[in-house]
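Design a sequence for this backbone.
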């Protein structure tokens, strides 16, 4: 084509464009007539008029006519997984819901865009200019654009949402990648919106899309589950929800009360007020008669138990979740909370139902509570609990290991079935508590059973020298739970009088009841002496001593009676692991006192607001209890079990078993020395965590009477190298090697302070000299000591050994498998 022809065509095209634009949008962006766009389709009326085209796979909605800003509807938007992957570590569970967002549709020319608003940044009550400045200063997110299919006579815009629904809005590919399942990507040609799944209601619209992801390098979790690991398909639910009606009264969060909050930044706040406003999450509860101390409510909170839960599980879940009813009654609300069985045929993902879901996975995993919440106010719209179906089966294994499978179904306090059902009631109350707005309280176990929002271990007692499970779990909510319901939900006067009433309640609760939040208790290196998980007792150090005595009895009586009739002997290894490690979480609880600091979450003027270092004598008592838990005598496996635990496995391996047993290198042959290594690691990991070592350095600097890293290291090495003979000598050598490697590794961690690292290195150098000078007369002991000394002196070899992943001990999982993201477990 010649240059002249190109120029003429370009000029003609430009002129035509000018003519079209001059003619106005009706000509430049001509909408299809609405009759053409929806011809032959049935209209369904609800939150939005909706048209389903099953033949062409289209899902059309009639958005409201654009307002002055071009907005064609504002909704609460939530997505969820209707079908799951079935993997606890990956976390793509059936009924998992996403973050709640404010979604708006805007018309821009011939297109409609979907946009997530940013309600966290506002200028409440300010001038229009101030509000616009706050809005325009922060980014929004445009997540989709689609063409206008037509307009109706009243100005509504017809839009096909099919491509909006097939986006990877749940970040499934990202979840797979983060969990080690590499390379998965959405396959557009295998991902479709499902017109047959559309549900239209006055308050919400429900849509679904089938999404397929592909990878050439699937990992172990997907390979264990999917029929074709290179292609996995999940169904994603999309919910458009009517924004809540006006009238909800937000309640400002108080750090002493153990709830959840959203932060809104108000740029119109006076200079003497906080910019960040924390809004507590809670349901809307309105009395029919606000003048009465106790009144019925306009809309009660009703939870429904998933019909997929089998009996007797289903009834137990209903009973446990119902424990909260009496607390709401005490807070002034009559018949405001109840729990029912899900109506037959009801949709558990429908936003109108608060649901306790029973979720199957390939391996045991977390249960958790999640909520759909209005991000502008903190109002909870829907509660959704996910209970992992295999948790109760793990409990059964533990109880059968403790008292014997011959007790199954016999009734009475030591019946594993009955104890497991009791645990399920408490679990249901715990997870429903999260969806009501209550966070964990990991300090409750030190004051008795003051809260179901703690993680309860089974309280295993010794009665007449025998295992006793009669008081394994609580049977009701506690004083903390009643306090948080009252603080979060009870009516208070408006304005300053109400704020004062809430502050007074929070202060009174903090003075009486202990609260430790998740981040100050869950990490093994955290330092609150009362903040731990799966622990029990007012004194965590004394409780560790008691648990070691219980563990000894449990190990001494463990054997074939843990098996059910006809159960393979190889199942003993899976049941043995949690019995051998029965003390593991009490170890962590006791370790919190070493380098520990007792603190609260007070506000100005509160009593006991100043943090206090754990007294030196308590820290040293904790060290002594922890050292006792890693003696050769404590770590040895009873001789009679060596043969029983070496039974082979025939047939295809079961991943549930493979990841739950104590790792061994000899195939089916049990290795008691490997078990001792695991037991020692449980103690050493808690003691040598960098944050703990760093606190010891600072505390000793501030008060020389407090133990420092030098004292901890010296006492630890003295305990590990205590003379041992006979069957205990080789266990002692294994513990000594592990102790040296753990200390050397801690000294080389980037998070360890220079002061802590230098003291550890000096102690290990001194140890090397001592081992060389006193190698001992026994040939095995001499070889061991000289080998350790040579390793400590050869820094390059020591670094190589520490870097070898095979040298790191794999401790079998104790907590449910899989990691918590932003959920509440």
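Sequence:
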């Amino acid at each position: 084509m010649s240059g002249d022809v190109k120029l003429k065509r370009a000029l003609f095209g430009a002129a035509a464009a000018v003519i079209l634009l001059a003619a106005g949008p009706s000509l430049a962006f001509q909408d299809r007539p609405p009759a053409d766009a929806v011809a032959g389709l049935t209209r369904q009326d609800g939150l939005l008029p909706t048209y389903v085209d099953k033949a062409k796979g289209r899902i059309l909605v009639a958005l409201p006519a654009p307002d002055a800003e071009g907005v064609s509807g504002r909704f609460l938007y939530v997505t969820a997984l209707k079908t799951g992957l079935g993997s606890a570590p990956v976390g793509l569970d059936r009924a998992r819901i996403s973050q709640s967002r404010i979604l708006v549709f805007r018309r821009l020319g011939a297109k409609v865009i979907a946009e997530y608003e940013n309600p966290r940044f506002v200028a409440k009550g300010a001038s229009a200019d101030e509000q616009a400045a706050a809005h325009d200063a922060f980014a929004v997110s445009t997540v989709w654009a689609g063409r206008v299919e037509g307009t109706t006579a009243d100005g509504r815009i017809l839009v096909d949402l099919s491509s909006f629904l097939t986006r990877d809005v749940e970040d499934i590919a990202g979840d797979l990648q983060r969990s080690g399942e590499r390379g998965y990507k959405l396959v557009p040609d295998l991902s479709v919106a499902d017109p047959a799944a559309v549900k239209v209601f006055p308050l919400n619209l429900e849509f679904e899309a089938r999404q397929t992801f592909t990878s050439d390098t699937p990992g172990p979790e997907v390979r264990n589950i999917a029929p074709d690991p290179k292609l996995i398909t999940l169904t994603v639910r999309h919910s458009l929800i009517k924004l809540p009606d006006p009238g909800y009264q937000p309640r400002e969060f108080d750090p002493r009360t153990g709830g959840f909050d959203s932060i809104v930044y108000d740029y119109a706040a006076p200079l003497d007020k906080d910019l960040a406003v924390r809004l507590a999450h809670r349901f809307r509860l309105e009395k029919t008669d606000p003048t009465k101390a106790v009144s019925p409510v306009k809309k009660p909170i009703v939870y429904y138990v998933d019909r997929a839960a089998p009996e007797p599980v289903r009834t137990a879940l209903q009973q446990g979740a119902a424990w909260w009813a009496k607390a709401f009654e005490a807070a002034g609300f009559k018949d405001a909370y109840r729990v029912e069985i899900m109506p037959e045929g009801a949709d558990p993902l429908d936003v109108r139902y608060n649901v306790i879901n029973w979720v199957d996975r390939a391996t045991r995993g977390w249960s958790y509570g999640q909520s759909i919440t209005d991000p502008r106010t903190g109002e909870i719209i829907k509660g959704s609990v996910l209970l992992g179906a295999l948790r109760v089966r793990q409990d059964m294994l533990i109880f059968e290991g403790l008292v014997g499978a011959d007790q199954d179904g016999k009734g009475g306090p030591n019946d594993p079935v009955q104890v497991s059902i009791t645990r399920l009631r408490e679990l249901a109350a715990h997870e429903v508590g999260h969806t009501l707005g209550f966070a964990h309280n990991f300090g409750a176990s030190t004051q008795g059973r003051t809260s179901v929002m703690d993680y309860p271990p089974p309280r295993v007692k010794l009665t007449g020298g025998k295992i006793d499970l009669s008081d394994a779990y609580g049977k009701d909510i506690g004083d903390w739970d009643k306090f948080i319901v009252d603080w979060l939900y009870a009516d208070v006067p408006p304005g300053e009088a109400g704020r004062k009433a809430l502050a007074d309640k929070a202060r009174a609760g903090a003075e009486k009841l202990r609260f430790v939040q998740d981040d100050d208790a869950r990490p093994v290196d955290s330092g609150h002496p009362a903040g731990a998980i799966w622990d029990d007792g007012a004194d965590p150090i004394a409780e560790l001593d008691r648990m070691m005595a219980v563990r000894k009895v449990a190990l001494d009586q463990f054997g074939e009676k843990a098996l059910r009739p006809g159960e393979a002997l190889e199942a003993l290894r899976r049941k043995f692991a949690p019995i051998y490690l029965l003390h593991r979480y009490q170890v962590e609880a006791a370790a919190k006192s070493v380098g520990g600091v007792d603190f609260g979450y007070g506000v100005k003027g509160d009593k006991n607001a100043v943090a206090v270092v754990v007294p030196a004598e308590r820290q040293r008592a904790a060290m002594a209890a922890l050292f006792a838990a890693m003696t050769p005598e404590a770590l040895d496996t009873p001789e009679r079990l060596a043969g029983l635990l070496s039974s082979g496995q025939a047939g295809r391996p079961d991943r549930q078993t493979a990841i739950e047993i104590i790792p061994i290198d000899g195939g089916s042959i049990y290795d008691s020395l490997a078990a001792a290594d695991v037991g020692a690691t449980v103690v050493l990991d808690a003691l040598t965590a960098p944050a703990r070592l760093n606190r010891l350095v600072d505390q000793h600097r501030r008060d020389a009477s407090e133990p420092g890293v030098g004292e901890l290291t010296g006492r630890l090495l003295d305990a590990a190298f205590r003379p041992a003979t006979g069957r205990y000598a080789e266990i002692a050598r294994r513990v000594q090697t592990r102790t040296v490697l753990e200390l050397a590794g801690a000294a080389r961690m980037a998070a360890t302070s220079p002061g802590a690292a230098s003291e550890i290195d000096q102690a290990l150098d001194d140890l090397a000299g001592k081992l060389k000078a006193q190698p001992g007369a026994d040939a095995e002991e001499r070889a061991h000591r000289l080998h350790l000394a040579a390793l400590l002196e050869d820094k390059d070899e020591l670094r190589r050994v520490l870097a070898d992943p095979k040298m790191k001990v794999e401790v079998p999982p104790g907590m449910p498998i899989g990691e918590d993201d932003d959920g509440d477990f």
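The two ends are 69 Å apart (CA to CA).
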